[in-house]
Specification:
Blueprint lengths: L4 H11 L7 E5 L5 E4 L11 E4 L5 E5 L5 H30 L3 H45 L6 H51 L11 H4 L1 E6 L2 E7 L4 E8 L5 E11 L2 E12 L5 E17 L3 E6 L2 E6 L2
Antiparallel strand pairs: 1-2, 1-3, 3-4, 5-6, 6-7, 7-8, 8-9, 9-10, 10-11, 11-12
Length: 315
């Protein structure tokens, strides 16, 4: 009879003399975690941990990545950063506005302020142009009289032309700012509409006539910013698999599920995660997750799960 791995490893650690040097923990070719006093050279590039005889991690050495994997990891990190940035913006939008009308009013206010700045610049440019015209008229008269234009007047004209150029450039920036403001607020309003719908849906319970345990049991899939798989067994067991699209980060959670009102309640007791470097971790957990069902059909569910509004369909 084979002893459990964890007991075997614990026995090994306790058998190491107190004066022993560092221990090495790594995963061998069979996927088994190994603790040894020496690290085989073939596993150096695969990544390992240095631990003491009590199992405390002293140092972690990440796997050595090829150029191809480094490039893929960089792309993956950029995608995750983009998703995180959007989540931060979502929180900011909900803090700023309670309705799309508020967002529209804020856009009108900002554009009005920019237009006032443009009007001030138009006035300054009119005065600068008028002054320049007068100076040019003086030059025409001086040259007509056969006299030489003095350096001071030439400098004043150059300064006036530079001033007009700067005013025009600033005016163009403000007009571009108006255009960008309209585009940004338009996108914000579209996103805000979704966020407010999600927020409203998660407050209280909505009765959905055709929602039942019988309807929910089976497999459901989502393929949007991340893929999400639900496998809801008639026995009450549940398996949830989740992975951000375009990345290798994923998780697999096991537990039970039940339907309460319009909420699916998951009681998770096991989780396996895989990070961007391919490191797998398994652990026992005690966690409750809730999904609010907004619309339900035999082939399609509209839900809010972990703060995300998404559609699940039958595979």
């Amino acid at each position: 009879m084979k002893l459990p791995i964890i007991f075997t490893l614990l026995s090994f650690v306790l058998s190491v003399p107190a004066q022993a040097q560092n221990l090495y923990r790594y995963i061998n070719d069979e996927g088994v975690t190994v603790i040894a006093t020496k690290l085989p050279s073939g596993y150096v590039k695969s990544g390992y941990e240095v631990i003491d005889r009590h199992g405390r991690v002293l140092k972690v050495f990440a796997p050595t990545l090829s150029d191809e994997k480094k490039a893929a990891l960089k792309i993956e990190e950029a995608k995750l950063k983009k998703i995180e940035t959007r989540r931060e913006r979502d929180a900011e939008l909900l803090q700023l506005y309670s309705s799309t009308d508020e967002a529209m009013n804020e856009m009108d206010r900002r554009i009005s302020e920019i237009k006032i700045q443009i009007e001030l610049l138009d006035g300054a440019m009119h005065r600068a142009q008028k002054s320049l015209n007068k100076k040019n008229e003086r030059i025409v008269k001086i040259k007509a009289a056969g006299r030489e234009v003095n350096k001071q007047l030439s400098s004043e004209i150059a300064a006036a032309e530079e001033s007009i150029f700067k005013i025009k450039r600033e005016r163009d920036k403000l007009n571009e700012n108006i255009k960008q403001t309209r585009e940004t607020v338009s996108k914000d309003m579209q996103r805000l509409t979704i966020l407010l719908k999600r927020q409203k849906a998660t407050v209280g319970e909505t009765q959905i006539a055709n929602l039942s345990t019988e309807l929910l049991k089976g497999g459901w899939r989502n393929r949007e910013d991340f893929w999400l798989d639900w496998d809801l067994e008639e026995s009450g067991d549940a398996l949830i698999r989740r992975q951000t699209l375009g990345t290798t980060q994923r998780s697999e959670s096991k537990g039970t599920w039940e339907l309460r009102g319009n909420q699916v309640i998951f009681l998770i007791n096991q989780r396996k995660t895989t990070d961007s470097r391919g490191t797998i971790k398994k652990r026992r957990v005690a966690e409750e997750q809730r999904a609010t069902v907004l619309e339900a059909g035999n082939k399609k569910l509209l839900i809010v799960f972990k703060g995300n509004l998404m559609t699940l369909t039958r595979p």
